[in-house]
UniProtKB/TrEMBL annotation:
Family in the record: Belongs to the major facilitator superfamily. Sugar transporter (TC 2.A.1.1) family.
Protein name per Swiss-Prot or TrEMBL: General substrate transporter
Any GO CC annotation of this UniProt entry: membrane
Compartment(s): Membrane
Membrane topology, as annotated: Multi-pass membrane protein
Region ranges (Disordered): 488-507
GO biological process, one term: glycerol transmembrane transport
Length: 507
């Protein structure tokens, strides 16, 4: 695009956040459609049938799972940029399949196929975009950028809720066709813009394309290719690649670190996908009032999703995870406690619980599971580990979205008790096993794990004991922990000096 420095970084962030805006929109778009009369008449299998409503909504998650598996298998070979282009193209194809259905011609089957295809594209994007963003960002703003990326999921959901609400006053076809078709607007940005964006410099280095990687790093930092800072960053990344056992970019599946399961089983999508349904069935509101309250709840969701942008690099990942866990647990306790009496006045308290749940989720558990896997894994496993974590995200997302209408129909307030207990179980896992990564470069995070392993201490303690390192200190620690030998380092510096001398002669 002819951009460099801050402008290029902003363009990378714009495309990444648009991809997650599309993700959020797609998450919320079925909420106001699935229980609408025009939709249920057009797709009679869903007419007041909680199992079918759950299935038509949740089958999208199976598509997302397949897309994540695709990246798991082929992401390292394709690269980050081309993966995003493929993902957006597949999503747009799925939207076309959905909106082109005709009543009485296997409409429900075609709609389900379209949901799956759209999901495949979204799975590809959500497995790729956080990794791409992390690998193109500086350590000082990486957390902020990926939190913005994760936070705009809430804005996408907000747009979907209010578009659903507005479309509900139009003709029957408009009620559901237009909100689904609107996804194409975001999809075109993610499809077209990456043609002119750079590839991830870290991915290029794993493919032994050093010259291209040098140009990309120089462009992202606004430096020249022969600048000392550019050469230092290349050397540090190469040390990290060597330490992770680089062999032409191949990664063994046994080396993967999993994450994101807890985000889903905590009940977020039980609230996001079925908020109007929860209000209709649990709190006995009309469909229109439930849609309106759902839209208000998404405003709360979007507002609180922005709070992480301002505190992520101050509070850190661990504190936000722990605060969100406690808040979500207590919110679910409030919901089921207020539904116990079975009275209308008490049920209003349950509505408050749903609002506070989405506020805590938006501020913490919404963006963090997209940021953490992209940071915590070494270069060798980063793309596949992020894909695996996203696979589990969608697998458990499917399970929660599938069973929530059935749980509400059969055990009522017990649904929220189950989610309260699950959230309570998260706290000790995070406290004992999640090291802090705020303000750390990706290579510095590798040092944390090397320190924990070599000194036989927990990685949480290693992250607390390791001071913040500059590039020279990272290089020294890399040699200390055996990432690279002194001879290797000397060879790299000698090669760089020769390059500079050659450039001077040519000049």
């Amino acid at each position: 695009m002819g951009l460099s420095g801050r402008k290029l970084q902003l363009m990378v962030s714009f495309v990444a956040t648009t991809g997650f805006l599309l993700f959020g929109y797609d998450q919320g778009v079925m909420s106001g459609i699935i229980s609408a009369e025009p939709f249920m008449k057009y797709f009679p299998e869903t007419d007041n049938n909680p199992t079918w409503q759950g299935f038509v909504t949740a089958i999208y998650e199976i598509g997302c799972l397949l897309g994540s598996i695709f990246i798991l298998c082929f992401g390292d070979a394709i690269g980050r940029r081309r993966s995003m282009i493929i993902g957006a193209a597949v999503m747009i194809l799925g939207v076309i399949i959905q909106v082109a259905v005709f009543k009485g011609h296997g409409a429900t089957a075609q709609f389900i196929i379209g949901r799956v295809v759209t999901g495949v594209g979204n799975g590809i994007n959500t497995s790729t975009i956080p990794t791409y963003q992390a690998e193109c960002s500086k350590s000082t703003n990486r957390g902020l950028l990926i939190c913005i990326e994760g936070g705009v999921i809430a804005f996408g959901t907000l747009i979907a809720y209010w578009l659903d609400f507005g479309a509900s006053y139009g003709p029957d076809d408009l009620t559901w066709r237009f909100p689904i078709a609107f996804q194409v607007v975001f999809g075109l940005v993610v499809l077209i813009a990456p043609f002119w964006l750079p590839e991830s410099p870290r991915w290029l280095l794993t493919k032994d394309r050093a010259n291209e990687a040098t140009k990309v790093i120089a462009a992202l930092r606004g430096l020249s290719t022969d600048d000392e800072e550019t050469a230092t960053e290349i050397n540090i990344i190469n040390d990290s690649i060597r330490a992770s056992g680089h062999k032409g970019g191949n990664t063994p599946f046994s080396a993967l670190l999993l994450s994101q399961i807890m985000q889903q089983i905590g009940g977020c999508n039980a609230v996001i996908y079925f908020f109007p349904l929860l209000f209709e069935n649990s709190i006995n509101q009309t469909h229109q009032m439930s849609l309106l309250l759902g839209g208000v709840n998404m405003i709360v969701y979007a507002i609180f999703a922005t709070t992480s942008w301002f505190i992520i690099e101050r509070a850190g990942r661990r504190k936000l995870f722990l605060i969100g866990t406690v808040g979500q647990c207590l919110s679910m306790v409030l919901v089921f406690a207020c539904l116990l009496p079975g009275t209308g006045s008490a049920a209003k308290g349950a509505a408050v619980g749903l609002f506070t749940y989405i506020a805590f989720f938006g501020a913490t558990w919404l963006p963090l599971p997209w940021l953490y896997p992209a940071e915590i894994n070494p270069i060798k496993t980063r793309a596949k580990a992020n894909a695996v974590s996203t696979c589990f995200n969608w697998l458990f997302n499917f399970a929660v979205v599938m069973i929530t209408p059935v749980m509400i129909d059969n055990i009522g307030w017990g649904t929220y008790l189950v989610f309260a207990v699950i959230n309570a179980c998260f706290f000790p896992i995070i406290y004992f096993f999640y090291p802090e990564t705020k303000k750390r470069s990706l290579e510095e995070i590798d040092i944390i794990f090397a320190k924990g392993f070599c000194e036989n201490i927990s990685y949480v303690k290693a992250s607390q004991n390791l001071p913040y390192l500059d590039d020279a200190a990272i290089d020294a620690k890399a040699r200390e922990y055996g990432f690279t030998s002194d001879d290797d380092a000397a060879g790299q510096h000698e090669a760089h000096d020769e390059e500079k001398d050659g450039a001077a002669v040519m000049a």
